[in-house]
Design the sequence.
């Protein structure tokens, strides 16, 4: 999810929502309130979508770590060798 693209798409959807709501209600105040509520709901949805993506990636990394631990446990001679990868913070863990 590319944030600027999501923001532009959200603003476009809100503009269409506001125009349609104004034509249906005829009230500027009601349109403004409903559009703000819609914007908040869209932001909550975006937040949960990003949270889901982070959770899914973390679960995938945990699965890979478990597989590596299982492989390392199967090979007892690998215990005396140096680790193949250093655990570094940030985006260097691949």
Sequence:
């Amino acid at each position: 999810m590319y944030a600027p693209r999501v923001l532009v798409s959200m603003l476009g959807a809100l503009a269409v929502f506001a125009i349609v709501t104004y034509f249906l209600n005829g009230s500027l105040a009601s349109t403004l309130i409903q559009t703000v509520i819609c914007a908040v709901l869209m932001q909550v949805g975006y937040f949960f979508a990003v949270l889901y993506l982070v959770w899914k990636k973390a679960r995938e990394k945990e699965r890979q770590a478990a597989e590596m631990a299982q492989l390392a446990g199967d090979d007892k001679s690998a215990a005396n060798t140096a680790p193949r990868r250093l655990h570094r913070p940030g985006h260097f863990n691949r």
The mean pLDDT is 83. The first helix runs from residue 3 to 25. The chain has one domain: 3-76.
